[in-house]
Amino acid sequence: MGEFSDCNLLALMPCPLKVPFERLITDYVKKKKEEGVELNCSIVANANNHLTFYEQIDAFREIDEIPDIVISPGLNNFFYDEFHNRFISKGYFRNPIEYNEAENFENIGYQDVAKNYTMFTLNLLVIVVNKDRLRGAEVPKRFGDLLSKEYYKNISIRGRDEFVCETVLLNFYKEYGFEGIKLLSENVKEGLHPAEMVKRATSTNYQDPAIYVMPYFFARNISARENIELIWPEDGALVNAISMLVKKGISKDVKDLTEYIVGQEVGRVFTNAAFPVSNPAVELGIFEDKEYKWLGWDFIQNNNLRKVMDEITGYYMSFQI
Asked: Could you tell me the keywords of this UniProt record (predicted)?
């Protein structure tokens, strides 16, 4: 497990951010090297690589096995009780960033007030509808509408095999319990990668689902057409967290890297790519005054997320016929 012991930054990035973020970090590292500063950074995008790394997290026993900075999407193993008890509760990580004004998304309580996790950007899930395939049903306006029986086997969410998007499942479970998970599963025809959702949503195959829960990044890139509608749900776009863990007691050079990552240059690139940031100096643009649905720290801290995910995923899969 010593492969990360000399790593200053390990970034497990959503696919749309991998290339621009890698370019920014490469330029930053090159500039620092010219100043005599060596930084070891690794940017990873493939979801399979993410899953492989998450499996390794449970095997970490010493803080030195973990990179100085780790960026990861979703409520993954870093939020599970095992990692929390072994590292978070002992104070090994600390959010080193302080702004002079209220952060973006402060109104939804996105930032970790305990300052263990640094919540610096987010991925937003919205609804895309091909109205030609609704079979007489109404266009959904809220995520809660997706539980209606009129959408039976006419929805797609992110997933494959035994994996189902934890952001979707946890939010539906929090609001609607096991009954909500059952109703959602009965209405979901298949789990897909977002890129595949775009193809299916715009296809001429009437056997493809009508409704897709997908990241806004992919939804906004669907070319305008009369039969396709992008819905920003009335109950808020689902917030898929992107967090950063920063070790306490890092060197000045690593702290400078952290500040660069949450700074304005990276923030503007992320926001323009449909991943708005917490930095209040970065304008939200189209993301200003929108509704957001964040799972919340009370739920995260008061539940064993691994146990909950195992239970609701198993329950969800039992209705996938």
From this structure: Signal
- Contact by Cβ (8 Å): 262, 97: yes
Q: List, in sequence order, the alpha helices (H) in 154-296.
A: 166-187, 194-201, 216-219, 252-261, 264-272
What is the residue whose two structure tokens read 């329950």? Answer: 315
Q: Tell me the torsion sign for CA atoms 33, 35, 37, 41.
A: negative
DSSP annotation of 93: B
Distance CA 193, CA 228 (A): 19
DSSP conformation letters of 241-258: EEEEEEBTT--HHHHHHH
H helix intervals, 132-190: 166-187
Q: What angle (nearest 5°) sits at the alpha carbon of residue 105, between those of residues 24 and 50?
A: 50
DSSP class of residue 103?
A: P
238-249, pLDDT tens digit by residue?
Answer: 999 999 999 999
Strand partners, 246: 69
pLDDT in tens, 97-139: 989 899 999 999 999 999 999 999 999 999 999 999 999 999 9
- Within 8 A by CB and 6+ apart from 33, the residues are 39
Radius of gyration of the chain (CA): 20
pTM of the model: 0.94
- Give the integer Cα–Cα distance in Å for 55 and 53: 5
CB 299 within 8 A of CB 173: no
Instruction: Please state, as a whole number, how many other Cβ atoms lie within 10 Å of the Cβ of residue 205.
Output: 8
Contacts of 266 (CB under 8 A, 6+ apart): 21, 24, 260, 277
Number of Cα atoms under 13 Å in the Cβ half of residue 114: 14
- State the Cα–Cα distance between residues 243 and 117, nearest whole angstrom: 6
Do 67 and 4 form a contact (C-beta atoms < 8 A)? yes
Q: What is the DSSP letter of 193?
A: -
Burial class (CB in 10 A: 0-12, 13-18, 19+), 289: exposed
